[in-house]
C-alpha cells in the first residue's frame, strides 16, 4: 500500500482520495480552506454525493484518511501526489491553469523523496510536460520527480461508484518506473487499465467528454427536426439504440447539457485546436447547438403565452441534472433570468439545489419579477399559470398528469426533460410541450367547477 497525498478536495480530489483510502492506501487530502478541512475531519462532505460521507467517516475512523491545510507535511514523504484542483474556463474558453501551477510549486518546495505527481485535473494536451519541467525547475531537494496523467471520468451524483467501479482507468506515463507505480496504485481496484503516453492520456479525457457532448447535441438537433417533420425523438432514439455501434446511452434529447465538464471541455478542446491552427468543426457545432437548446423551452413558451408578466410560473428542478446540488451551466440559469425580465412570479422547487440558486437569485423581487423557493411541488403548482421542468428529479417524475390538471390554474407544462407521456398528459387535460415530440391534444379543458381552465391563462395571479 502507498502513501498518497491529494491536492484539492473538490469532486475530483476528494472522491479520489476517499476511494484510494477505501482500497487500503494511506491518504492525506490537502486543501487551502481551513473551514472545509475542519468540516471533512468531522466526517462531513463539502459536496453532496451519494455514499461519500459514509466512506469518509469509515476511512477516517480506520485511520486511512486525513485532511490538512499543511501541504508540506502531506507532500514531503508521499509516494504519489494526485492533483485534483480545478481548471476553470477563462473568457476565451481556454483552461485556467493557475491552481495547478500553485500546487506544482508547493510540491517542488516540499518533497523530500522520489515522488510521482499525478495530474487528475483536466488539462490541455502537453500541460503535464510543462508541469514536470516546472516542478523540476523549482525543486529544493535532490529527488526524482515525474508527472503522470490520470484523467477522471466520474459523473456527479455517481462519483464514488464511477471511481470504485470505473469502466477503465487511463494512465499516461513517460517511463517504466511511473507506469509500474501507477499500475500498483490501481491494482487493488481490479479495473481495466489503459496505459498510454502522457499526451494521449490528456487527449483521451477531452475526446471522451466531447464525444458525449456531441452525442447529446446531435440528439437535440435531431429532436428539433423531429418536431418539424412529425417524428418522435424518443421513438427515434429507441430505434437507434439497438445498434451496438451507437449504443443506448446519452441519447436523451432535452434542454442541453450542463455541468462542470461538457461545457468547459468542449470549449477548451476547440481552443486547443485553434491554437494549433486547426478548426474543430464537429465540437464547435456541439457547442452552438447546446447554447441554442438551453432556451428552447422558453422560446416555445414565449410563442404560446405572449407575456409572462404577473403570471405564476412553477419551475421544477434547478440543478444541471438530478443527484447533485451543482448549478454550473444549468439550463435554469439561462431561463430564469429571461422569465424574471418578463416580470414572472416564479415558484421554484428543487430538492437540493434551491439554496445554491438563492445565492444567485435571492428570494423576493429580482428586477421586474419575483422568485420564491418552495419545499414541495404542490406549492409550486398550486394556482400556477404555467410550469417549466428543467431537471428530471425523481419527485418531479412522480407528479401525475392529474395533479397538474388539478393544482394548476392553467395546466400548461413545458418539459425540458421529456419525462411524461404525451398522450397521458393530453387525456388528463394538460397542455404539454416537450422536446422533439408532438404537443398533447387536450381533451378536457374544464376544471372541477366546469369552467375552462385555458381562458384564464393570461390572467395574472391575484387579479
Ligand atoms: C460528465 C461525464 O459523464 C463524466 O464522465 C465526466 O468525467 C464529467 O462530465 P457530469 O457532468 O457529472 O459527467 O454529468 P452527466 O451525467 O454526464 O450529464 C451531463 C449533462 O448532460 C447533464 O446536464 C445532463 O442532463 C445532460 N445529458 C446527459 C443529456 O442532456 N442527455 C443525455 O442523454 C445525457
Automatic annotation (TrEMBL):
Stored SUPFAM superfamilies: 6-phosphogluconate dehydrogenase C-terminal domain-like (SSF48179), NAD(P)-binding Rossmann-fold domains (SSF51735), UDP-glucose/GDP-mannose dehydrogenase C-terminal domain (SSF52413)
Superkingdom of this protein's organism: Bacteria
GO BP terms, alphabetized: polysaccharide biosynthetic process; UDP-glucuronate biosynthetic process
Gene Ontology terms for molecular function: NAD binding; UDP-glucose 6-dehydrogenase activity
Active-site residues, Swiss-Prot/TrEMBL: 261
Record-stated family: Belongs to the UDP-glucose/GDP-mannose dehydrogenase family.
Species this chain originates from: Mesobacillus persicus
Functional pathway: Nucleotide-sugar biosynthesis; UDP-alpha-D-glucuronate biosynthesis; UDP-alpha-D-glucuronate from UDP-alpha-D-glucose: step 1/1
Transmembrane segments annotated in the record for this chain: none
Entries under Pfam families matching the protein: UDPG_MGDP_dh, UDPG_MGDP_dh_C, UDPG_MGDP_dh_N
Keyword Nucleotide-binding set for record: no
Annotated protein name in UniProt: UDP-glucose 6-dehydrogenase
NCBIfam families in alphabetical order: NDP-sugDHase (TIGR03026)
Catalysis performed (reactions): UDP-alpha-D-glucose + 2 NAD(+) + H2O = UDP-alpha-D-glucuronate + 2 NADH + 3 H(+)
Entry keywords, A to Z: NAD, Oxidoreductase
Amino acid at each position: 500500500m502507498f502513501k498518497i497525498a491529494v491536492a484539492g478536495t473538490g469532486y475530483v480530489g476528494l472522491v479520489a482520495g476517499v476511494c484510494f483510502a477505501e482500497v487500503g492506501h494511506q491518504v492525506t487530502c490537502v486543501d487551502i480552506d481551513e473551514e472545509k478541512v475542519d468540516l471533512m475531519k468531522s466526517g462531513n462532505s463539502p459536496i453532496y454525493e451519494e455514499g461519500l460521507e459514509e466512506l469518509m467517516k469509515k476511512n477516517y475512523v480506520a485511520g486511512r484518511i486525513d485532511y490538512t491545510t499543511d501541504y508540506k507535511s502531506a507532500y514531503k514523504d508521499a509516494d504519489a501526489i494526485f492533483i485534483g484542483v480545478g481548471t476553470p474556463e477563462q473568457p476565451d474558453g481556454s483552461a485556467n491553469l493557475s491552481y495547478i501551477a500553485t500546487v506544482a510549486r508547493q510540491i517542488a518546495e516540499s518533497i523530500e523523496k522520489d515522488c510521482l505527481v499525478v495530474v487528475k485535473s483536466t488539462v490541455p494536451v502537453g500541460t503535464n510536460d510543462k508541469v514536470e519541467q516546472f516542478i523540476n525547475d523549482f525543486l529544493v531537494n535532490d529527488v526524482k520527480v515525474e508527472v503522470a496523467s490520470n484523467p477522471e471520468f466520474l459523473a456527479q451524483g455517481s462519483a464514488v461508484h464511477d471511481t470504485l467501479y470505473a469502466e477503465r482507468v487511463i494512465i499516461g506515463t513517460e517511463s517504466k518506473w511511473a507506469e509500474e507505480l501507477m499500475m500498483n496504485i490501481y491494482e487493488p481496484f481490479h479495473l481495466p487499465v489503459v496505459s498510454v503516453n502522457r499526451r494521449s492520456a490528456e487527449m483521451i479525457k477531452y475526446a471522451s467528454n466531447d464525444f458525449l457532448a456531441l452525442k447529446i447535441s446531435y440528439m437535440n438537433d435531431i429532436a428539433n427536426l423531429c418536431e418539424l417533420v412529425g417524428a418522435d425523438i424518443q421513438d427515434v432514439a429507441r430505434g437507434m439504440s439497438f445498434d451496438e455501434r451507437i449504443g443506448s446511452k446519452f441519447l436523451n434529447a432535452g434542454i442541453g447539457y450542463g455541468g462542470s465538464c461538457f461545457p468547459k471541455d468542449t470549449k477548451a478542446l476547440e481552443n486547443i485546436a485553434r491554437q494549433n491552427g486547426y478548426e474543430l468543426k464537429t465540437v464547435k457545432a456541439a457547442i452552438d447547438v447546446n447554447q441554442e437548446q438551453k432556451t428552447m423551452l422558453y422560446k416555445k413558451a414565449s410563442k404560446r403565452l405572449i407575456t409572462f408578466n404577473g403570471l405564476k410560473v412553477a419551475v421544477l428542478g434547478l440543478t444541471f441534472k438530478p443527484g447533485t446540488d451543482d448549478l454550473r451551466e444549468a439550463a435554469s440559469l439561462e431561463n430564469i433570468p429571461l422569465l424574471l425580465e418578463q416580470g414572472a412570479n416564479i415558484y421554484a422547487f428543487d430538492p437540493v439545489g434551491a439554496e445554491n440558486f438563492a445565492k444567485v437569485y435571492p428570494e423576493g423581487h429580482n428586477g421586474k419579477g419575483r422568485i420564491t423557493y418552495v419545499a414541495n411541488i404542490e406549492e409550486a403548482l398550486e394556482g400556477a399559470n404555467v410550469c417549466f421542468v428543467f431537471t428530471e428529479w425523481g419527485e418531479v417524475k412522480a407528479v401525475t398528469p392529474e395533479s397538474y390538471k388539478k393544482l394548476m390554474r392553467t395546466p400548461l407544462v413545458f418539459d425540458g426533460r421529456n419525462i411524461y407521456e404525451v398522450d397521458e398528459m393530453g387525456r388528463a387535460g394538460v397542455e404539454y410541450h416537450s422536446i422533439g415530440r408532438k404537443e398533447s391534444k387536450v381533451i378536457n379543458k374544464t376544471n372541477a367547477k366546469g369552467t375552462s381552465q385555458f381562458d384564464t391563462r393570461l390572467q395574472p395571479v391575484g387579479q
